Each structure stands twice: as C-alpha cells, then as structure tokens.
C-alpha cells in the first residue's frame, strides 16, 4: 500500500502518461454528449421540416439513449472477453456509418431508427472508458480519475449546443451529423494510435452467453452495487430531463433563438464542470460516499426550488436558470462518485459492471426524456421530473446503499496512478 509520500509523487513521465490517457479517454467519452447535444438547437426545425410533432422529435433523443443503454450491455461483456481496444474501435466505426446515414434520413421514423443505431456505436466509448478506469484505479483514485474525465467530457455539453447553433448558421441540421461523422473518424485514428490495451489476456473472461449471464447475476446480487447504479441512473435522469426539455423551455417558453440557447446551455454546463473539478480537491477531506450524499441532497433541494419558481412564475427566466445551475452543480458532485463506488466493488468484471452502470444511466434517461414532453415541455414539467428523480435517488441511497457502510479504498490513489503510467 502506498504511503502519503508516495501518493504525492510527481514523476514527470507518469504525469504526462496519465494526462494523455485522460485526454484520449475523455475524447471517446465526449462523443456521447456531442451526439446527444449537438442537434438540440435544431429540434424545433427538425419537427417543422419532417412535418412531425415536438414530442416525436424528442423520441429521437430517446432512441439515442436506448441505443446507448443496449449497446453497453453488449459491449461491456465483450470488452471483458476480448479486451478494450477492439470493441472501442468497432463501436466508433458504427457511429461513423450511422451518422452518415442520418444525413440522408427522409422522415422521422428513419431518423429515430438510425439514432438508436448511432447510440449503440456511441456506447463503446462510454463503457470502455469506464472499464479502463476500473482496470487501473479503485476507490478515491477512481473518483479522482472520473472527475478528470468529466472535465474533458464536460466541455462537450458546454460546446455541443453552441457548436450546433453555429453550424446551423451555415448548414441544415443534417450538417450537424456530418460533423459528428468527421469527429468519429478522428477518434478512430486517435484510438488506433494512442490507446493501449489495459486488460491482459490472463484477466479476460468467457464470452459465452451463460458465462455473461452468470456475471450479470453476480453483479445484480450485490445490494450496494445495485443501489449505487440506481442512484447514478436517477442522477443522470435529472440531467437528461434538462437536456431533453431545455431547448423547448428556453426557445419556446422564453423566446431565445438557437444561438442564445446554445450559449445559455453552455453556461449551465459550466457549473457541472466546476463541481466535477471541485470533487478531486474535496476528496482529500471527504470520502466519495459523503460527497455523493451531499450532491444528491443538494440536487433534490435545488430541484424543489426550481419546481416552485416555475409553477409560480417568480423570477421569469432567472428564476428557472439559477436553480437549474444549482441542480447541475449538485449533479457534478454525484456523477463521478456513484460510478467510482460502484465499479470499485467489481474489478474482476469491470466491463460488465460498467455496462450495467451505463445501461441503467442511459436507460433511465431514455424513460425520463419523453416525460418532460408529455408533461408540457415547460419549466414546471422539467422541474417536476428533476425533483422526482432526485428524491427517489436520495431514498435509494439512504435505504438501499447506506453510504456510511461503504469502503472507499482510500489508500491506493497514487499507486494506481503510477500503474496507469506504465
């Protein structure tokens, strides 16, 4: 076990290697938020061009989340069996092909089906990145690493709607998917050249269906793991309700244009990033379990304030934006710590454990996204979904997980970091 002196070692080569890994993994993780968010400013335009309803267009977002959920359940066990690189690169190739096919989509049904396929390809980056982190890190080190990934990943939701809005100045919504295909090609080249295999052959598992089912059964029999996965999923649901409803709230309810929406959406994501980067600093004084509890409690309170202000109309746009930013800040504390605690429990099946985690996160997001539209696509609907999701998350955390009983693996931070550098 590394002592405190070791944990503060700052070997230059190790730091550069660690930074390179964060950037490469972050680039792959970012393809998810980019795929989800870049076309958000165009949702009203897509509804008009394809002669369909706003709710139907929102279902294309749901389709992407369904693809992300199902794709992770398939890719996670595959990555435990054959290693991390091959599934990652194959999924990226699928993302490229589906993005190009979307450019030609003639109607909303075709668009929805292709978005599911695009989500499956996107799932590779999400699940393999988490599995790589678990291959190399545990406990506080995993939470710290995930926070660094969220810094890179956080730039995606900040920039994606803004990039999408700017692209719409020069092209149609179809051009957004051309840009996603180009990004996918860049990832394919980057992954082929820069990402090393982190799962040696002796640690790989059987890819047979029965063996996969036994692995999943073992994961689902762990009460704390299941509870942490649910908390992570419900926290992500609060985030996705904001993603699904924000374009209609900001543009429809408050009259912002596509570019203004992109800027305001990016400003909100700043608070998510700020919290994820506060998290590694806070981990010197608090455990991941304590920070997770703080994030869920704060998010629940902020969601309640948002709902109250939205129902009364108090504060107008400011009355919606400020509590939303507080929700995003709270999510930035919860989102790195819940996965870190969950994955630490099952390093022997990191790909499958990450797959269940990701499938629940995006699966719950897929279920939640249409609710905002069905409830009215306004700030009150968004607030109601957020506060409900986070209230349930808080109950699960306290009753099922019982965070005061979790072992956070405090002593291995730099030992894992040094292992990752070699």
Automatic annotation (TrEMBL):
Transmembrane segments: 18-36, 56-75, 87-106, 112-133, 145-164, 176-195, 224-243, 263-286, 291-311, 317-338, 350-373, 379-401
SUPFAM superfamilies per UniProt: MFS general substrate transporter
Protein family according to the UniProt entry: Belongs to the major facilitator superfamily. Bcr/CmlA family.
Species the sequence originates in: Aquipuribacter nitratireducens
The protein's name in its UniProt record: Multidrug effflux MFS transporter
NCBIfam families: efflux_Bcr_CflA
Topology with respect to the bilayer: Multi-pass membrane protein
Pfam families: MFS_1 (PF07690)
Location relative to the cell: Cell membrane
CDD domains registered for this protein in UniProt: MFS_MdfA_MDR_like (cd17320)
Keywords: Cell membrane, Membrane, Transmembrane, Transmembrane helix, Transport
Stretches assigned to the Major facilitator superfamily (MFS) profile domain: 19-407
Principal cellular location given in the protein's record: membrane
């Amino acid at each position: 076990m590394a002592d405190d002196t070791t944990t503060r070692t700052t070997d230059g080569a190790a730091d550069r290697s660690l930074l390179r890994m964060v950037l490469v993994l972050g680039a792959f993780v970012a393809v998810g938020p980019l795929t989800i968010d870049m076309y958000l400013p165009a949702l009203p335009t897509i509804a008009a061009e394809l002669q369909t309803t706003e709710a139907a267009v929102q279902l294309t977002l749901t389709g992407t989340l369904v693809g992300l959920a199902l794709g992770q359940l398939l890719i996670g066990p595959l990555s435990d069996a054959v290693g991390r690189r091959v599934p990652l690169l194959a999924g990226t190739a699928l993302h490229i092909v589906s993005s190009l096919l979307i450019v030609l989509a003639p109607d909303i049904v075709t668009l929805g089906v292709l978005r599911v396929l695009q989500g499956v390809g996107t799932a590779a980056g999400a699940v393999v990145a988490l599995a790589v982190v678990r291959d190399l890190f545990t406990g506080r080190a995993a939470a710290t690493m995930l926070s660094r990934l969220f810094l890179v990943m956080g730039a995606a939701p900040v920039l994606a709607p803004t990039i999408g809005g700017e692209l719409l100045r020069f092209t149609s919504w179809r051009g957004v998917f051309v840009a996603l295909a180009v990004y996918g090609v860049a990832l394919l080249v980057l992954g082929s050249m820069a990402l090393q295999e982190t799962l040696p052959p002796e640690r790989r598992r059987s890819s047979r269906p029965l063996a996969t089912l036994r692995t999943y059964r073992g994961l689902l029999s762990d009460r704390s793991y299941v509870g942490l996965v649910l908390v992570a999923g419900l926290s992500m649901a609060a985030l996705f309700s904001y993603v699904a409803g924000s374009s209609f709230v900001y543009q429809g309810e408050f009259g912002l244009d596509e570019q203004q929406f992109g800027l305001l959406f990016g400003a909100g994501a700043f608070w998510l990033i700020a919290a994820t980067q506060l998290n590694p600093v806070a981990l010197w004084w608090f455990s991941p379990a304590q920070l997770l509890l703080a994030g869920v409690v704060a998010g629940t309170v902020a969601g309640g304030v948002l709902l109250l202000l939205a129902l009364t109309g108090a504060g107008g746009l400011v009355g919606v934006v400020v509590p939303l930013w507080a929700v995003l800040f709270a999510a930035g504390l919860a989102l790195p710590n819940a996965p870190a605690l969950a994955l630490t429990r099952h390093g022997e099946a990191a790909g499958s454990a990450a797959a269940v985690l990701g499938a629940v996160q995006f699966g719950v997001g897929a279920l939640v996204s249409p609710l905002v539209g069905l409830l009215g696509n306004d700030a009150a609907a968004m607030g109601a979904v957020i506060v409900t999701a986070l209230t349930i998350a808080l109950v699960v955390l306290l009753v099922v997980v019982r965070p005061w009983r979790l072992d956070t693996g405090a002593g291995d931070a730099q030992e894992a970091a040094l292992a990752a550098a070699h």
